[in-house]
Predict the 3D structure of the following.
Amino acid sequence: MLLKDVVLTVEVQESGYLLALGEDDDYPTEMPYGWRCGPAGASSIVVLTTTDTGPVSLTMQLHDTPPPPDSSTGWEPVEEVSLHADTNTIAVRVLGQGDIVDAWPDHEAPLVIPPAAGDPQWIRLRLHCHVDHHEPGLGDRGERHLIQLWHAEQTPPIHPPLSAADLEARAAYAEAANSPVEEYAHSYTIDGDNHIVS
C-alpha cells in the first residue's frame, strides 16, 4: 500500500544527484555509466540524468509492501538497489563541481521512513526514468523519475547489461578520480605602481 508520495523538481548539474539514507556522503569515486543508478556508499546511490543542467521531476513513493513496477508506457528499463538506512529520512543532494548540495525544498516536509522490526534496516529502491529528449543537453529535457521505496531484506541489484563503451567510460572516470591534482603556481613581479611587469 502507498503510504506517502512527494513530488519534487530538482535542478541538477552535469553529474546528476544522490539519494541518501545517511548523513555522510562523499563525492562518488566511480560513476555507474551504462546504468541510471549505482552505489555511492552503503546508504546512498548516485543517479545519472540525461539533463546536464536543468530541472528533473522526482516522484518519491513510500510503500509498506513491495509495489508492482509502474506499468505505464515510456519508462526506461527499471533498476533496483538495496540501501542500508543509517537514518529514516531520505535526502536528495545535487552533485555540483566537486561539491554536494542539499536539494530538498525548504517548504516540503521530509520523507520519513517508519522503522521496521529487526536490524539492520534495509530499504529497497526501485527507479523508473523517462526522458522526452534523449540527447544530453542543458535546460528542460522533459525528464522525470519515479522512485519507489519499501522495507526489504538486502538483495542483489537489478540493472541492464553493460556495453564495452560503458566499461571504458567507468575506467576513465575512476582513473581521473584517483589521479593527483596538480598544483599550479606562477611568480609575478610588481612595479611601484602595482602593475605586473613579468
Notes: The first helix runs from residue 164 to 178. The mean pLDDT is 86. The helical segments are 164-178. The radius of gyration is 20 Å.
